Amino acid sequence: MEQLTIAGKTYRSRLIVGTGKYKDFAETRQAIDASGAEMVTVAIRRTNIGQDPNQPNLLDALPPSQFTILPNTAGCYTADEAVRTLRLARELLDGHALVKLEVLGDPTTLFPNMPETLKAAEVLVKEGFQVMVYCADDPIQAKMLEEIGCAAVMPLASLIGSGMGILNPWNLRLIIDNAKVPVIVDAGVGTASDAAIAMELGCDGVLMNTAIAHAGNPVLMASAMNKAVQAGREAFLAGRMPRKLYSADPSSPTTGLIGKN
Amino acid sequence: MELHINGETRQFPDRDAAFTVAALVAELGLAGKRIAVERNGDIVPRSQHGETALAGGDRIEIVVAVGGG
After folding, report:
1. Pfam families per the record (chain B) (predicted)?
2. Which ipTM was obtained for this model?
3. How many domains does chain A have?
């Protein structure tokens, strides 16, 4: 299957997965292996001073030598907080420049604050970051982010962690049709068919966390998502048949039926 | 010396030699761990931990990667 290229690096998998909300690091690793994802998101947080410094570290379970680590700015509500967090991430990951920018608008919806997102993107691109950016499903602002120099635009399909699926396929199509950088649907996918629908729309990839981590069986759902993303991509490339709203079209021959004469 | 580390105020005994970021990281048991350090809002690159001296009242952030989406 053709590969996904983001910021000059190619990936076989079009599924990007988060690492939050799992029971433990072993389950995280098993689910990510089943998902086939090569790129995984992580959050940046204060270390617990005074607690056992030898407790396991996420990056031991997911070594940067095996996965592309995508540090995020989850929990940031201003451009300044997001930029500061990603500078720390770059230091933490030895100069790694590929990041996920998200600047949130409010804690109830976790909807992006687009003015702050645009501001942060400008600063980060100038500082040499390769920015994959969580954004509203607004084709105009997605284009602005592309023009700033973001490496990928990542519109939400529905609210983060909601599992509500693809609520506005029309807006996503407008973004996809206009974009010259990869479009990754980020947030809202609930189950495998949602991921397939996103890919059938022509998205370059899907990013998800809760749909896998909060599934009844996260490892099995990760495997389902792996297949759904591949199936959706192949269906998009194959091109679906036209919809016939008011007439059927038999698949079997209409001639040679027995007993007709 | 009083330092504000990850939002907590902590006292460290006065010492003859400079108290560096590297010494602080070691004292916290974090030497060799995957961490990043910020001092008063600016990144302290790992290569400079040994030569960056701390001053009383410094605001230090020490971060790690955790699970997130």
Report:
1. ThiS (PF02597)
2. 0.93
3. 1
